[in-house]
Each structure stands twice: as C-alpha cells, then as structure tokens.
Design goal:
Length: about 450
C-alpha cells in the first residue's frame, strides 16, 4: 500500500529537517496520540475480558480464560500473511479507521455475552482487527516522519504500546471504586471498563481520520477487483523479499530467535526468584519492574544518540548484549547482581525493539511494508508462545539432568553453586539470544562480502 503523505503547505520541508524533533510532524503526533489512547483502552479491555471469562467460566474459570487467550493468539498465526496482503492492497487510512470502529462495536456487545464460546468469538474478532491495525500503522509511519527521526518515532511507539499498561491497570482498579460509588458491583466495573475501551477506539479512529494520507496508486487506477492468483503472487513476493533482503532477514532472525530466549524469562522468572534468590512474594514483581526501567532507559538513550549510531551493527550488538546480560543475571545468586543484569538486559532489549522496527521502516519498500510487518508480528508471537510453552518443560528436564549428573549442585573447593533446573533453562535462553546475534550478523555480513 502506498498511502503517501499529502502535500504539505509552504515551510513543511523545514519542518522535516534534521533539526526538528519527531513531534515536529503534527501528523505523527496525531497518530501517536491515537496509539496511546487505543493501547490504554486495549489494556483495560484485556483485563475486563479476563474478568468476564472468569465470571462466566463457572466451575472451570481457568479453562475459560485459557480459551479466550488462545483466541487472541491463533488468528495472528494463520491469517497474518493474508492480512499483510490486505494491508498492502487497500487504503490503509480507511483500514485503520474500520478496525477501530469494529473493535469498539465488538467491545460494546461483550457485556451481553453469557457463554464462553461467545466470548471466544468476540476475542477472535478483536484479534483479527488488531492483526490488521498493527501492520497498517507501521506501514504509514515512514510517510509521516523523516528518515532521521524514525528511531525516535519507534521509541515513542514502544512507550505507547507498553507504557500504558500500568496506567490502564490503575484505571481498571479505579473503575471498581467508581462503580462502588455509583452503588454498582464488580459487574458494573467491567461494563464501565468495556465502555471506556470502546470510547478510546472511537477517539483513535477520529484522530486517524484527520491524517493527510493519499490513496494508493491502485485506488487511483480503479483496480478494485480481487484476483486470487495475484494475491498468491503478492504473498510469494513478500516472502521472497524477506529472504533476499539482508536487513529484513537480520531483523526477523534476530527478533524471532531472541524472543525464544527472552520470552522464557516470563514463565521462569517467578520460579528463579523462589528457587534461587528466595526474594519473597515481591521478588518477581521487582524483576519485572527492573526490566521495564531498563527498557525505558535504553529507549531514551537510543533516541538521544540515534544519529551517531550505525543501526545495523548496533542492532546486532544489542541482541548480543541482551544474551550476555541474561546469562550474567541467572548465573548470579545475589539479588542485587541479578537485578543489575536484568536492568542491563532491559537496556539492550529496548534497543533491539526500536532498532529492529527502524531498520524495517528504512529498508522495506513502501508497497511491501504490510506483508513484512505482518510476517514480523507472526514470527514474534510464535516465538514468544513457543518460549512460554516450552520454558516449564525445559526447567523440569534440566532439573532431572542436573540431579542425575551433579546432584543439583557444583562444588569447587569452598565455592558452591546451586543447579536447579530453572537456571539451566535460562542459560539455554541466553544462548538462544547469543545465537540470534550471530545469525543476524551473518545475514548482514554476507552482502558486505559480495560488495567488497
């Protein structure tokens, strides 16, 4: 899709000059505000849907929640490639607006649902719209922001996507108090949360409607018919581009393989805290907060020095640094040293995310962005789900292996190290991240050799 920015009034070239911050583009500012509003509401809706699943799940609330969460994951695996073609074929501005309106409508019907299958169907529709909205948004960012400011723009997008979660969690708790003040119950809290979520999507749609994006050239040529064979060719074209582009290949390999390792920290962090650190109930929360602070520092520092960096080499170094820091963190049995390693890992991980998206924005041709970003989202989700699923099994497997080989402890003189299975699994996780950095480096190195 080629939703180019509309011609700007006089003086716009100076607005896009290197001396201006990313907010010098009012179009991106509106898109970023729309993303913040949408993400804030999405997190509230996420918490509300979990509460509804628990409520209508009856004697099996855990199974109901698992089914609903599965419905939020599966569409991205099976329909992302097709969604990428849609994003590249239709008017992206209208697609973004339509997805926001669809999500608002679905959310308003959820309070009427009384069966788990209905909530699963609603979750499927929400995820289908989200699977189209994300790649479409990413595809138009380079048309609203000068190339020199793409790193800063992606830093802000990361903040909008994940920095709104604590605000949304606080708002969800506040809605419970608001419902009590009105004389309602927990049901009232959920209904207010879903109504607020729907409102945020409508506000986001209104903001996106003001973006000055031109239609795709296919729209101007009135090529409105959908040809199945052409769609298959476009799908093949997108994957072929991923295979031959060193930057795109490096980003997908680096983020995907690295996510297998980094994602294991989610299910195994709590186990590591209990078994190795013994830091109590607040320990795992402290690990997550420390990781988030590290990401924030990394994103901020990267935005400040972006113009002096070689993005490709820094991306590889950041993936490698994430693996080394995780290795250090899980090798230590001291809480302070572990938190220091997790904090440093967050700095590198935030840089990996921002630089990865920036490299795609800078190197992917405009008409292919939808398919490439859809492939990225699919790969990241698959690798994250894989890491969360197998992490526990790896921990149990290593626990058995270390018990057989070392009796779960290595002793050298007066020095001893406990070897629970969770430590072995996280060592493997860090090795995945190191392998990801090597694969990304090889992907970028091959064209350098050919050109020399």
């Amino acid at each position: 899709m080629n939703d180019l920015a509309a011609p700007a009034p006089n003086g716009d070239e100076s607005r896009l000059s290197r001396s201006h911050p990313v907010f010098g583009s009012p179009e991106f500012l509106r898109l970023w505000i729309a993303q913040i509003v949408s993400a804030f509401g999405d997190w509230i809706g996420f918490l509300a849907i979990i509460e509804i699943a628990r409520r209508i799940g009856g004697d099996q609330p855990g199974s109901a929640i698992a089914l609903v969460m599965l419905a939020r994951v599966l569409p991205g695996f099976f329909l992302a490639s097709v969604g990428g073609i849609i994003v590249d074929r239709v008017n992206r501005k209208r697609l973004l607006i339509g997805c926001d309106i669809l999500r608002a409508g679905v959310l308003l019907t959820i309070p009427l649902i009384e069966r788990v299958w209905g909530l699963v169907l609603a979750s499927l529709l929400l995820e289908l719209a989200t699977s189209l909205w994300g790649p479409a948004k990413e595809a138009i960012v380079p048309n609203l922001v000068p190339k020199e400011q793409l790193t800063a723009a992606n830093s802000l997008s990361l903040i909008a996507a994940y920095g709104t979660f604590p605000l949304a969690a606080g708002a969800f708790i506040g809605l419970a108090k608001f419902a009590e003040w009105l004389g309602g119950s927990s049901i009232g809290q959920v209904e207010w949360a879903l109504a607020l979520d729907a409102l945020t999507f409508l506000i986001a749609a209104a903001l996106i409607a003001t973006l000055p994006l031109l239609k795709h050239r296919r729209d101007r040529d009135k090529a409105t018919s959908i040809d199945l064979s052409q769609g298959i060719r476009e799908l093949r074209e997108g994957w072929s581009y991923i295979a031959i582009s060193p930057q795109v290949r490096a980003v997908l390999v680096g983020l995907g393989t690295g996510m297998i390792g980094g994602g294991m920290l989610i299910p195994l962090g709590a186990v590591f805290n209990d078994v190795v650190l013994g830091a109590g109930n607040a320990g795992f929360g402290t690990i997550l907060v420390t990781l988030g602070l590290g990401v924030a520092v990394g994103v901020t520092a990267l935005s400040a020095i972006q113009r002096r960096l070689d993005k490709e080499h820094t991306f590889v170094a950041s993936v490698f640094g994430s693996g080394i820091c995780l290795l250090f963190a899980v090798t230590s049995s001291d809480t302070f040293l572990t938190l220091a390693g997790v904090f440093a890992m967050g700095i590198f991980a935030g840089s990996v995310y921002v630089l990865g998206f920036t490299l795609l924005h800078e190197n992917v041709e405009e008409q292919l962005r939808g398919r490439v970003f859809s492939a990225l989202y699919t790969l990241v989700r698959f690798c994250l789900l894989l890491s969360i699923t197998v992490g526990g099994f790896l921990s149990d497997g290593f626990n058995w292996l270390f018990d057989v080989l070392f009796d779960n402890e290595v002793t050298v003189g007066s020095w001893a190290m406990a070897l629970p299975g969770v430590r072995g699994a996280l060592w493997m996780a860090s090795s995945f991240m190191l392998i990801a950095s090597v694969l990304a480096w090889i992907s970028l190195r091959v064209p350098e050799k050919k050109s020399s």
